[in-house]
Write a structure and sequence with these properties.
about 120 residues, mainly alpha, 4 helices, about 70% helix, globular
Amino acid sequence: MTLLSAVRETADTVRAYYAQFRAALALIVERTSKTPKTHRGVTRLFHQIAKTEAGIDQAPAGDQTIAYRFKELAGYETTMVRLVTRQNASDAIAGAEHFATEVRRVLLPPPPGSPAP
């Protein structure tokens, strides 16, 4: 793995985390009108909502926590650049897509005439 590819994979992982972060924040604001001031606050409130609201898949909540750990390591650990693999980045992106799809499903009503989930 070259340093350039390692940096790209790390950047992809961080972007995946922020996609999840923004989706979680949208759900929190919609449901509570609160705007958490920290990443930890977003994670905590999202987990609370996910536990109490019917229809939210619990798996994406875990994905967000894992992505946060990658984001923290990638942002603050210089050795992490070489530890994030292409598979880690792919998994983070897939997790972010699942997470955003789940939040979108919960926030947006189905189009008129569509079958019930």
